[in-house]
Design brief:
- It is built from 11 helices and 13 strands.
- Strand 9, helix 7 (244-248) and strand 10 (251-253) form a beta-alpha-beta unit.
- Strands 1-2-3-5-4 form a 5-stranded mixed β-barrel. A 5-stranded parallel beta sheet has the order 7-6-8-9-10. A 3-stranded antiparallel beta sheet has the order 11-12-13, with no helix packed on it.
- The longest helix has 91 residues, at 256-346.
- Helix 5 (177-193) packs parallel to helix 6 (219-226).
- The chain is of the alpha/beta class.
- It has helices spanning 2-8, 52-65, 99-119, 147-159, 177-193, 219-226, 244-248, 256-346, 349-393, 396-401, 449-458, and strands at 12-23, 29-36, 42-50, 74-84, 89-97, 137-142, 164-169, 200-207, 232-237, 251-253, 406-409, 426-431, 434-439.
């Protein structure tokens, strides 16, 4: 059998997908070449061996082409069919491998996957999801403890922002990677659909060869990313080519660190916009407040000037009244004295003595009139001084200095009672030395006196 196969098939080219790859102690490499049908069902398989001498040359050719000899790679091999009598086993001895064919097979599979995803409507599905402007709740799919995992978390922590990360461990390379990544997305999807909050899901891994990153070209991973209920940020360590996971994800980044920086920058941008909006809203408010304060101070100055003018006018009036009283009293007394003297000169002796007595009384009356007028003037001046001090004490600035305040609504209307405000009303309170802004969060109506009396009677 062995000789017949060697004579009939000296050199044969076969192609298939590598599976069950394992290395032996002496350096030889055993694997299966598998031909797949629809739905990845296995139609045929061929046991193969690559001896240690040929293995070095084959792997060198693969490295030069940028392809790794790993499970899942499609190989086109040239070799000989062989039969091992000791074990009664048929196997194919590989002599040469065509790495260019493997590259073409990878690209062909990639194109077929993209066409299938487009036919299913999955290429743009995740991109159509709205990414939260402040994505602080992050689902993370990666290999726990890997460098990619550490770099991603370190970038988030250094930002000082309040990120919350929900990690689901998954292999990101090898035969188990596709299934584990798909399962991780299923778990995170169930969490979101159950009411949990995830603003985004990050799928990350470090760099590697094209074959290392072949997991992210698989249909299962691509479908998991596309069907994710949360936007996916893909940070796979590639520098040139995009994986299919990158194509279907909401946002594609070149490295895990860049994916974290993208999330940090989005949160910082939202915080900056909120701060800018706050400043824009506060600026008109400050201008209105300054205008109100200026108007209030102008009114205060007007009141002071008006009070001073009133006091000056009142003082002048008092002075005029005093002068008038003095003048009239003096003139009246003088005239009365003149009349009396004229009458006295014409009267006989007894009558003259009687008039002299009357004149003495008039002089005494005159002596009393002058002090009385002066006392009236002093009392008038004292009343005016008291009014001046009262106006000074009741000035707005002195009133605020004693601990009182003046509260207005945002529209400038004065708050006189609890009925003038509602919960949420913005207030501006003028106190001594400045203005305080506040907002109403609760209203408590003061009980009426009658209600208090009724309550006391009940107790």
């Amino acid at each position: 059998m062995k000789g017949l196969l060697a004579d009939a098939y000296p050199d044969v080219w076969v192609a298939g997908e590598v599976q069950r790859l394992r290395s032996a102690a002496r350096g030889q490499l055993y694997f299966e070449l598998v031909e797949k049908g629809r739905g990845d069902s296995v139609k045929a398989k061929l046991d193969c061996v690559l001896w240690a001498d040929e293995r070095q040359a084959v792997e060198a050719g693969f490295r030069e082409a940028g392809v790794d000899l790993v499970e899942g790679v499609v190989l086109r091999c040239c070799g000989k069919p062989d039969f091992w009598p000791g074990g009664g086993r048929f196997q194919f001895t590989v002599g040469r491998v065509d790495p260019v064919f493997s590259l073409g097979a990878l690209e062909q599979r990639r194109r077929e996957t993209l066409r299938a995803l487009e036919a299913e409507g999955l290429l743009e599905r995740n991109k159509r999801l709205a990414l939260h402007p402040v994505p602080l709740n992050i689902g993370l799919v990666t290999s726990e403890g890997s460098a990619a995992h550490a770099d991603f978390l370190d970038t988030l922590v250094k930002s000082g922002l309040g990120f919350r990360v929900c990690l689901v461990h998954s292999a990101v390379q090898g035969m188990a990677a596709e299934a584990e990544i798909g399962h991780a997305f299923e778990l995170l999807g169930a969490f979101v659909r159950g009411g949990g909050r995830l603003d985004a899901i990050a799928l990350i891994r470090g760099g590697g060869s094209r074959a290392d990153l072949a997991t992210f070209d698989s249909r299962r991973v691509a479908r998991a990313v596309a069907r994710s209920p949360a936007p996916v940020v893909c940070g796979v360590g590639h520098q040139i080519d995009q994986s299919i996971a990158d194509v279907v994800a909401h946002t594609s980044c070149k490295t895990p660190t860049e994916a974290a920086e993208f999330l940090v920058a989005r949160v910082e941008r939202a915080a900056s916009q909120v701060e800018e909006a706050r400043r824009r809203l506060a600026s008109p408010g400050r201008m209105l407040l300054q205008a109100r304060v200026s108007a209030y101070r102008e009114v205060e100055r007007g009141l002071v000037r008006a009070a001073e003018r009133a006091l000056a006018v009142a003082g002048a009036s008092v002075d005029n009244v005093g002068r008038t009283l003095r003048s009239r009293a003096t003139i009246s007394v003088v005239r009365a004295g003149d009349r009396l003297r004229s009458i006295v000169e014409r009267l006989p002796g007894p009558s003259r003595r009687s008039l002299a007595v009357r004149m003495g009384e008039c002089r005494r009356l005159e002596a009393r009139v002058h002090p009385a007028a002066e006392r009236m003037l002093r009392r008038a001046l004292e009343r005016m001084e008291a009014h001046r001090r009262l106006c000074d004490q009741l000035s707005p600035e002195r009133t605020l200095a004693r601990g009182f305040s003046l509260t207005r609504r945002a529209d400038g209307r004065l708050v006189r009672s609890i009925a003038d405000v509602n919960v949420g009303t913005q207030l501006r309170t003028s106190v001594h030395g400045g203005t305080i802004g506040s907002s109403v969060y609760a209203l408590t109506e003061q009980p009426r006196q009658r209600d208090l009396l009724d309550e006391r009677d009940r107790t």
